[in-house]
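Priority: medium. Attachment 1 of 2:
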């Protein structure tokens, strides 16, 4: 039984040509200053490849990562955005309906870390209010040039109430896939929790529905008096009068 549970909780990337329709689709945006390695990190996670000669992203690139988790097929629609100011008016459109923002900086460049405040403001102004945010310090292969400490990153996460934090290396592959694995798990759990809470609220609403403030006996007597005083309506079905809205009854009988 434990082996079955472990297998169900495992997460794996499916082949790009996997054609089965996903059970869930989540939109993920990867943002951060230019040159922090957003595209390299995404391609390393998806294809296990690294290309140091990649040209800077112009506008955005779109990739799909298909995963299997808890026996469900989950597709991450990954929008890899450029970090250049000139394209920001275009990129802001792609924040809409994103479930997760992966906010990337370089551990070897303090300016890309201080720029995070600007990117958080972009998220606040353009994304849905319940978007999840993961903080990623890339380029840990440049430890000798480290300009941002782990403690600074953790403090930033706590200060801004972010959801996940990682350090990674697109070049060596450290944590590149774990970022997207943990993103998938978080988004799946969040979706399930929302569905369960919605179901509970619906059930609670039914249980707490206010009973109409009228007495059944009082209304039956009222109906009988009405029939006695209006003999032409003596054959009206008793059920008609059970509606607590008296005006509704009167409109039905035209009296």
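Attachment 2 of 2:
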């Amino acid at each position: 039984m434990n082996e079955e549970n472990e297998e169900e909780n495992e997460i794996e990337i499916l082949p790009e040509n996997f054609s089965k329709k996903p059970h869930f689709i989540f939109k993920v945006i990867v943002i951060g200053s230019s040159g922090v390695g957003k595209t390299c990190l995404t391609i390393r996670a998806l294809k296990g490849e690294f290309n140091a000669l990649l040209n800077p992203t112009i506008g955005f690139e779109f990739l799909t990562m298909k995963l299997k988790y808890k026996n469900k097929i989950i597709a991450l629609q990954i929008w890899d955005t450029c970090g250049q100011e000139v394209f920001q008016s275009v990129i802001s459109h792609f924040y809409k309906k994103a479930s997760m923002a992966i906010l990337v900086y370089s551990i070897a460049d303090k300016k890309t870390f201080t720029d995070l405040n600007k990117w958080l403001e972009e998220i606040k102004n353009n994304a849905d209010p319940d978007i999840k945010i993961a903080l990623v310090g890339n380029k840990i292969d440049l430890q000798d040039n480290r300009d941002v400490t782990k403690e600074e990153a953790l403090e930033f996460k706590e200060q801004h109430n972010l959801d996940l934090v990682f350090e990674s290396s697109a070049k060596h592959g450290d944590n590149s896939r774990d970022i997207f694995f943990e993103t998938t798990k978080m988004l799946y759990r969040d979706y399930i929790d929302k569905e369960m809470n919605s179901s509970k609220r619906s059930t609670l609403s039914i249980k707490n529905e206010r009973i109409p403030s009228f007495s059944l006996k009082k209304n039956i007597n009222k109906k009988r008096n009405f029939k006695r005083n209006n003999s032409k309506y003596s054959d009206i079905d008793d059920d008609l009068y059970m509606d607590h809205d008296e005006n509704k009854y009167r409109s039905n009988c035209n009296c």
